[in-house]
């Protein structure tokens, strides 16, 4: 989760730099018999010790082609980078934050390419956690601009790196279609799911595509990837 990533980095920086906050937390640990959990200044280096999974995949990108089991070329990919990865700790963000490309680079390692740019690429997903429920129309309005841009580009799949972003585009695609009148299909997947697909993983037992609202099977059909829909134990 990109938000967990950002909050953990912020918390580590606060614990390292603010003696008062650190002592207040450590005091609570001591008072509750949890002395072993006390935090010492610089126990964690927020830049080096807290990473997102895409950072790991990016650093391992030269190893990715060695594990190729499926050809993913021939599909049109767009990427959506989590705001809390790109827009909180700028100095820690890999491959840019104004036009983020870290997911794009991982795609290149799999022998496929993502759109270098599309209208609204850096735009927020609209989820905003509680905003999705407290201000639903405002949340959806923020999503619509990006959704329509993706439809205009006729993408086959939108790749994300954050479960909250995935929830916003996958769970609400039918709502967004009704709101905009745009009906072009595109799948929504986490970059780790696409990488697992590339490496030959079972689409139901490993990728868990049966949990998606927008079906992934049409994308598999376009890629000529065989699957046994009996593996879908959710829709029986």
Give your account of this protein's structure:
With 236 residues, the chain is mostly helical. It is built from twelve helices and three strands, in the order ααααβααααβααβαα. A three-stranded parallel sheet has the order 1-2-3. The model has no long low-confidence stretch (mean pLDDT 90).
**In angstroms, what is the radius of gyration?**
20 Å
User: Order of helices and strands, N to C?
Assistant: HHHHEHHHHEHHEHH
Number of helices: 12
Strand content range: 5-15%
Order of strands in the sheet with most strands = 1-2-3
Report the count of strand segments. Answer: 3
Biggest β-sheet, characterized? 3 strands, parallel
* Count of folded domains: 2
| Architecture (CATH level 2) name of the largest domain | 3-Layer(aba) Sandwich
State mean pLDDT (0 to 100 scale).
90
Helix content: 40-55%
| Form type | globular
* Terminal CA distance: 30 Å
Q: Which regions are unreliable across 5 or more consecutive residues at pLDDT < 50?
A: none
CATH first level of the largest domain: which class?
Alpha Beta
> The CATH topology of the largest domain, please?
Rossmann fold
Class from secondary-structure proportions = mainly alpha
Task: Show the helix and strand layout.
Layout: H1 2-17, H2 19-31, H3 46-49, H4 53-59, E1 77-80, H5 83-86, H6 102-109, H7 131-134, H8 136-153, E2 157-160, H9 163-171, H10 173-180, E3 187-190, H11 191-198, H12 217-222
Parallel strand pairs: 1-2, 2-3
Helix pairs in contact: 4-6, 8-10
């Amino acid at each position: 989760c990109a938000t967990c990533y950002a909050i953990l980095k912020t918390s580590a920086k606060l614990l390292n730099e603010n003696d008062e906050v650190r002592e207040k937390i450590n005091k609570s640990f001591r008072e509750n018999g949890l002395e072993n959990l006390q935090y010492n200044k610089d126990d964690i280096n927020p830049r080096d010790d807290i990473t997102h999974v895409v950072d790991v995949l990016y650093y391992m990108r030269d190893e990715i082609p060695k594990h190729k089991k499926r050809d993913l070329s021939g599909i049109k990919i767009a990427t959506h980078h989590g705001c809390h990865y790109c827009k909180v700790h700028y100095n820690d963000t890999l491959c840019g934050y104004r036009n983020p490309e870290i997911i794009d680079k991982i795609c290149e390692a799999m022998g496929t390419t993502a759109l270098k740019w599309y209208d609204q690429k850096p735009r927020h997903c609209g989820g905003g956690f509680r905003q999705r429920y407290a201000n639903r129309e405002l949340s959806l309005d923020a999503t619509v601009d990006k959704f329509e841009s993706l439809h205009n580009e006729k993408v086959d799949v939108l790749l994300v790196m954050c479960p909250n972003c995935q929830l916003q585009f996958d769970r609400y695609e039918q709502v967004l279609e009704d709101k905009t009148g745009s009906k072009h299909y595109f799948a929504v997947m986490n970059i780790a799911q696409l990488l697992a697909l590339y490496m030959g993983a079972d689409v139901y037992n490993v990728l868990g595509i049966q949990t998606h609202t927008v079906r992934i099977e049409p994308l598999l059909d376009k890629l000529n990837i065989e699957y046994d829909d009996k593996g879908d134990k959710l829709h029986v």
